[in-house]
């Protein structure tokens, strides 16, 4: 989660710097244009186009982790909040995610200490409020076929949705890096 926050801050900083550079270059161009018009009667040929900063690279798909020689995943399911009942989410977890060892530690056959099964956000907050800032847990979402990473910061608890509908796991809207297992996603952001 810290790496994700650092990456977000870096993107915001780059965007802020790009906006400032654009404004500065625009003002310099306007200022130069007025001076040139006054002193030499500048033409459109004399003005150079503004140069924009380069775009950040697109997120890359991380290679799948191989367990017992191969990773087998079912096709992702298009989902909506209204059609995902608690029963269908439990069925989805048992049939699709449990065979993939979602929630297990990477190297053993034990459930990861950060995985808490199906919890409400309120119950996750109750658990995290008894811990130190920086603590987190992952639970099966009660509303969608995916997961929620609940994180305790100094300001309070924050919840991040994890998309598990395709052949990978990734945060929705925040971090587009894709991971082959839930444990890989958690380890990457620890």
UniProtKB/TrEMBL annotation:
The keyword Transferase does not apply. Residues 114-190 form the SH2 domain. Residues 1-24 have a biased composition (Basic and acidic residues). Residues 1-59 are annotated as: Disordered. PROSITE patterns: SH2. It holds the Pfam family SH2. It comes from the Eukaryota. GO terms for molecular function: phosphatase binding. GO terms for cellular component: cytoplasm. InterPro entries: SH2 (IPR000980), SH2_dom_sf (IPR036860). Keywords: SH2 domain. Signal peptide: none annotated. This is SH24A protein.
């Amino acid at each position: 989660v810290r790496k994700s926050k650092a990456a977000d801050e870096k993107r915001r900083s780059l965007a802020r710097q790009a906006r400032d550079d654009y404004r500065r270059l625009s003002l310099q161009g306007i200022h130069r244009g007025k001076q040139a018009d006054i002193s030499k009667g500048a033409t459109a040929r004399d003005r150079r186009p503004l140069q924009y900063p380069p775009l950040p690279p697109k997120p890359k798909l991380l290679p799948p982790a191989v367990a017992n020689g191969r990773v087998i995943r079912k096709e992702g399911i298009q989902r909506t909040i209204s059609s995902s009942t608690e029963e269908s989410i439990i069925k989805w977890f048992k049939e699709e995610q449990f065979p993939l060892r979602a929630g297990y530690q990477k190297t053993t056959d034990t459930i990861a200490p950060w995985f808490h099964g199906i919890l409400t956000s309120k119950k996750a907050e109750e658990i995290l409020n008894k811990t130190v800032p920086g603590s987190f847990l992952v639970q099966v979402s009660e509303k969608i076929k995916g997961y929620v990473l609940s994180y305790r910061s100094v300001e309070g608890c924050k919840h991040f949705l994890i998309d598990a509908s395709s052949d990978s796991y990734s945060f929705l809207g925040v971090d587009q890096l894709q991971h082959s297992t839930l444990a890989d996603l958690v380890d990457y952001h620890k």
